[in-house]
Predict the structure.
Amino acid sequence: MSISPLNPKGTRDFLPLELSKRNYIINILRRNFKNFGFSEIETPALEKSSTLLDKYGSEGDKLVFKILNSGDKVKKADILSLQSGDLNSFVRSVSEKGLKYDLTVPLARFVSQHQNEIIFPFKRFQIQNVWRADRPQHGRFQEFTQCDADVIGSNSIIQEIELIKMYDSIFNQLGFKDLVLKINHRGILKGLACHFGADKNIMKFISALDKIDKIGVDKVLEEIKLISSNFSEKQLKNILSEKEFDLTYLKKIFIKNSDSILAIDEIDQILNFFSSNNLVNDLKFDLRLARGLNYYTGTIIEVSSKTNTRIGSIGGGGRYDDLTSKFNLNNMSGVGISFGLDRIYLLLEESNLFPEYLDKSFEFMVANFGIDNLKFISPYIDEIRNKNREVLIYPDNVKLNKQFNYADKHNVSTVIIFGDNERKNGIVLLKNMLTGEQLNYQLNEFIEAVIKR
């Protein structure tokens, strides 16, 4: 019985046009990363389980793909844990590695491991695949590409400001003018948790707030009731239902909480900076923004479309003050942002913002009239390629209509025709595949004519 050729659910193959569009996004990202002073690194797809687990919170840990130990290591399986229902201990006994869930935790491991080889503050960017055992849905895959930029070794608010500017620069160059960059601060959220009686369940409080866009305010309040019975439901509902959030009002709530007051001051500094340094897209403080990952400690950022809410956030990040301490490197604050390449792709596609030239697999095609004619024109083709232009030579000497049909399917703009008659007369014929126009050029004029197209 034959096996149907299917890739695993939650993963994708990319056809040439799709990959061309993805690379268009990546090239804009990479150029901006470098323009803002970031250097590129790479880390392995695999990380030790001890590196990955207990960094993302219980929900995140569940989504880490574990890799089964091989060979004799399987014999170390803790069967007693399995029989007693202690699945976490059992999994740890049969799996010592996992696929990386994101790029931030591996970065913390990288910085700690190579701390004597890098210069701080360390500004790095990374464009690599990550894996999450999540339920596949529109814009969400189990294997996807993250594009991250982080600064390690500086707690200056200037870093957040630069990252916001870079977000706006990149999305502007991609053609987005209707995005909203939301900011909040974990210090504010912690203060809110304490104010509403959840000081012993701060992370659960934050995790509940992180679900507002998915389940709504009322259901979030139901979750908060389970972790705090001593709070004013009406007051919290009013606060969370607001479209605009008043920082002055929050200062009154946090009058005795110096950490939360400091957090508000940092948000104020960011907003005031951009009051006179305009962004193309909107920047606003959003008290409901939580971002569920446990390692965030300071400013948090998220980017989404105002008009297309179905896709969700297309970027996010924040500050983490003690992530590297888990790898024995203390007092090393970091802040970073991530770009959701797949969701950006979908939003560009739905907004019809990809450039038309990306539809072309290559610019020029040389029609095949036999190896002798190709041998004669080959030096000219080499010269065109040396000018960084894309030229494909059709491999078979078949009917010209079949070759033209191939060029049409690849959206080729120009076919270079050089047959026996052209060779005899010392000319080259260029056919415009869009208009059907054909022009003759002398061999010594041919290169210049092609380059100008």
Observations:
- The mean pLDDT is 89.
- Residues 360-452 form a domain with the Rossmann fold fold (CATH 3.40.50.800).
- The chain has two domains: 16-65+101-350, 360-452.
